Amino acid sequence: MLDAWDLDGWLGLLCDDARYLIPPNDVPDGDPDTTLFIIADDIDRIHGRVKRLKSRDAHAEFPPSRTRRLITNVRILDQDATEVTVTANFSVHRFRRGGKGGEYVGKYIYRLRKTDDGFRIAERRAILDAEELGGLGAVSFIL
Amino acid sequence: MNSNPYIIDNPGANDFRLNRETLIDPDILTAERDRVFDACWIYAGHDSEVAKPGDFVTRDVGGRPVILTRDGDDNVRLFLNTCRHRGAKVCRERDGNTKRFYCFYHGWSYGNDGALVAVPGDDAYPDSFDRSELGLQDVPRFEHYRGFWFASFNKDIVDLDTYLEGAKEYIDLVVDQSPDGDMEIVAGIQEYDIAANWKLLVENSFDDYHLHSTHSTWLEYMKDAGVNIKVPKGLLLPKKGIGLDLGNGHAVIDNYNFRGRPVATWISIYGEEAKPAVEAAKAELVERLGEERAERVANTNRNLFVFPNLMINDGSSVTVRAFWPEAADRMKVTAWALGPMGESAIMRKVRLDSFLTFYGPGGLATPDDVEALEQVQAGLTSTVKEVSWSVMTRGIAKDGEQLNSDELHLRTFWRRWNTLMTGEEAASETAEAAE
Known about the structure:
The complex is a heterodimer. By secondary structure, chain A is mainly beta.
């Protein structure tokens, strides 16, 4: 869905209080309230981010990157009556005309909430394995 | 290197042009390393990063690998991270706390005061072998101003206090936010590369001319979030943003704040629950500093450039950003968040959240700056034969005060850079304007 830039479709998968987090490379298990993250969006900023990415004025993503994500090792870490915590490895390849591409490797940790409409994303944490962002430059698309 | 001048600087004729080769030519970078970076004070780190004896962080400063540490006598030290025996790094961790730095190659080890304390099999060395001369190498000069530590590889440089000139006043405005005068670097470092010449980031970091075109999506986000982005009336402060030359190549843009600051103007995106804490922070400033100084600290946004490669942006949060050229067309950027030591949990949360709205490789604005710089670099590099000069004359014809969206502060940087590179005296814009 994200690879197809169906951003509104992706928003439909989120809970009303969803968070989207990318911790800093040097503190991968950090807490966004006390640690400077790369991304620590609440639902309002997720909506703001999507609106921005759909604009021609999101210069770092115009023309939009092409991305392809390979997902492996999907595992359930924990579950209770309301939520399931799931982890998965990712390798996201990014390609851009006349701009920076690269390979973003790491793992997702999802908190999925059970709702009447099936599972919805309560928190999506993308943890990068790289020691520093370095040559990848930015995370301007939704990782 | 071509034989044209680096800049054409003739304020009397309202002319300032920049030779685009200065952003492309690898030979110019080689000269910069010697004449600019090794001639100046370079930001090395913050006192709070090594809060306790034995704390250390490793990084590159001035192109050298260094260890920033606090020794057992509570002195902050900066050592070159190289074994005096064969040269390997004696510390390969990012940070930590230790009494010893140990070279794994032949096993020499050093105290956190730099002293060489153990040499395996030292009976094989002659009598002339003197451990006291083989401690970790200090950088030639190492001084701090209000917790910001700088190194210089020029042993004859003026002291840091003199070097900083007018920049000190603006560092004071940042540090005065803290009730006890102590600021700290927050955990979490943003490290990213930009495929552009380092001097383009100097310009970009305090170029307010580009705000509306480059960052329209960020302004839109702020408006959508209910933030009033109109300029209010100021009583004690400059009513409009200005650009200032602070001497020695340092410069600043100084703006009335109208988009919220964790210290201490609440805006809707901080959340209702943060309002009392933000108001209390402001009240503390007024109590401690008086109304006028509190307004100055709390309600101005300042992007301070400390020549040659440090930015301290005190706006929606406090960002400390240093950058270093890896090649003529590539730099490494390191960015930290700075906050008052001991601030409340809710204020820290607001500060970090506010930082991320605009700044950093995942912010709603910085990636567009990075894109702009990379597009500039690509544009310059391939066309320099046909298009050799960039124009940098905004505001040059004005008498007196220049706006944050003018280019006086950019010319200030380039003039100092040119003086260091060529030995030529810089033209004075203000003197010309006064004639």
